[in-house]
C-alpha cells in the first residue's frame, strides 16, 4: 500500500465520490478507512470507532466473518468467473439461487434473478413487471407508483420512482409514467396527520384516488420500502403495507417490496414485508445478501409472476441482465452469508439491540432539544431528525449536521448524515456494550451544536 500522504493527496485528486461534490474533496477530505474488525472500523490516522452505519446499511455480519471470506477466496481459485447468460451456468449460482429462494420461501418467493446490486435489482423488478403484464395480455400496464421519501437507487428507472428530490433533479427528465404518493411520515405530511394509523389510511386513500385518476389498467406496479431507509428511517403504521397490498390486489397492480436494506434480518425479521405480515409479488435485495463483502443483488419473484414467465414461451425471454449476474464469486459469498445469517440468528439480535438503540436515543431527546423526531424501534434501523427549532420543525442546516457528525466521530462512532437526519444501521451482530457506546457518542455529538 502507498504511504498515507500519497493516499490522502490522490484520493482527493482522482476519485469522484458517489453523492459528493467533486470540487469539495480537497477542503473536506474524506475519512479513509483502512481496516475493520467486528463492528468497528479503523481510519488512516489509527482511530478506531464503532461503525453505526454498517458500511452502508450492508455489513450485517460485521467485518470479521471468516466463513464468508474463506468462501470467496476458495471460489476465486475454483472458478473466478463465468457468465450465466442463457446457455451456461455455474455450480455456485445454482446453490445460491436455492439458498436465496429458501430464505424467502415464507414470503412466497419462488424464483431468483441475480444482479450486481440494489439499483440493478430495482431495475430488474420494474422491467420484468412490465413484461409480466405484456405476457398476460395487458400491455397498457406500464406505469409505476411509489412513495415520496422512498429510495430505490440511481438507475433511471429507480431514480424515476425515487421520492427524494436531490436524487432526481440533476438528471431530469426521468422516466414518464411514474407517480408518487405522500410518505407515511407522521412528523411531516400534507395531511397534517400525526396519528400513524390515520395517516396510513390517508395515504391508502390517496393511492386509490390516483389509481382511479390514472386508470388501473395503465399501472404495472407499486414499489415501496417496508421501512423507508435513506429517506430518514420512516416507519409506517403496522397496518400500512397491508392496506397497500390489498389495494394492489384489487386493481391487478404488482407489489414490489424493496428490501435492499430491510432484507436479511435488519428489521428484526428476515424480511421487512414479513415484519408487516405481507407477501409481495416481487422483492428486491442486495447489501445484506453478502454482508457487503461482494457486490451482489437479487430480484425475487413469487409463484404468480413466475408462472406467467415460465408458461410464456419465446416472448417470455428475459432480454435483461448483467455480465456479473450470478457471478460465481458473488454466489459463493451469498451461500456463505446466508448460512452464517441463519446460524447466528441475526434477526433476534437486531430486534433486541434495535430496541436498545431506539430507547437510548429517545432518552437523549429529553436532553437535547435539537432532536425533532426519533424513528426506529423495528430492528437496527434508527433515524434521528435534527431541527434548530422544535416548535417550527426547522430542519438543521448542513454545516451544523456536519459538526454533529464530526463530534460523534471524535467520540468514537461513525454515523451517516442524510439531509437533516442522522441515519444508523450498525452490524446486526453488534453487542449491547457497543450500542451503549453509540448512544454515549451521540450525546457528545449533539452537545457540539
Ligand atoms: N433500494 C433501496 C431501498 C436502497 O436502500 C438502496 C441503496 N441504499 C438501493 C435500492 C440501491 O442499491 P445500490 O446502492 O446497491 O445500487
UniProtKB/TrEMBL annotation:
Keyword tags: Aminotransferase, Pyridoxal phosphate, Transferase
Name by which UniProt lists this protein: Adenosylmethionine-8-amino-7-oxononanoate aminotransferase
A GO CC annotation given for this chain: cytosol
Family affiliation: Belongs to the class-III pyridoxal-phosphate-dependent aminotransferase family.
Any GO molecular function: transaminase activity
SUPFAM superfamilies according to UniProt: PLP-dependent transferases (SSF53383)
Cofactor(s) listed: pyridoxal 5'-phosphate
Native species: Shimia abyssi
Keyword Transferase carried by entry: yes
Family annotation (PROSITE patterns): AA_TRANSFER_CLASS_3
One family name in Pfam for this protein: Aminotran_3
Lineage: Bacteria, Pseudomonadati, Pseudomonadota, Alphaproteobacteria, Rhodobacterales
InterPro entries for this protein: Aminotrans_3, Aminotrans_3_PPA_site, PyrdxlP-dep_Trfase, PyrdxlP-dep_Trfase_major, PyrdxlP-dep_Trfase_small
